[in-house]
Amino acid sequence: MPQLVIEINGQQRTLEPGRSYTIGRNPQSDFSFEDARVSWQHGTISFNGSGWQLDDHGSTNGTYVAGAR
Predict the structure, then answer these.
(1) Rounded Cα gap, residues 43 and 56, in angstroms
(2) Who has the most CB within 10 Å: 27, 42, 43, 45?
(3) Three-state SS string across the chain, please?
(4) What is the pLDDT of residues 6-59, one digit of tens each?
(5) Could you tell me if 23 and 44 are in contact, meaning their C-beta atoms sit under 8 angstroms apart?
(6) What was the pLDDT predicted at 9?
(7) 25: which residues sit within 8 A by CB, 6+ positions away?
(8) Cα separations (Å) of 62 from 2, 7, 33, 37, 44?
(9) pTM for this one?
(10) Vertex 45 angle, CA 42 and 30, to 5°
């Protein structure tokens, strides 16, 4: 199964398939951000069997990729 490598602020993390990774302002998130544009529980990253996907959890400001919501 393919790993996913994410780089944030110069630090790399390798994500393994088989679990979900949380994103949000919540300090307990796997990827925690101190940014008002990020919701407390913004979304999750997971492997769906054929590829990695990012699911937005109804965040107030939404999720954008390459400028598109």
Answers:
(1) 4
(2) 42
(3) CCCEEEEECCEEEEECCCCCEEEECCCCCCEECCCCCCCCCCEEEEECCCCEEEEECCCCCCCCECCEC
(4) 998 899 999 999 999 999 999 999 999 999 999 999 999 999 999 999 999 999
(5) yes
(6) 87
(7) 32, 33, 34, 35, 38, 39, 40, 42
(8) 27, 21, 15, 9, 13
(9) 0.86
(10) 70
pLDDT confidence tier of residue 1, bands split at 50, 70 and 90? low
pLDDT recorded at residue 65: 84
Tell me which residue has tokens 């990253």. Answer: 45
The answer to whether residue 66 scores a pLDDT higher than 90 is: no
Q: What angle do CA 64, 54, 31 make, to 5 degrees?
A: 90
In residues, how long is the chain?
69
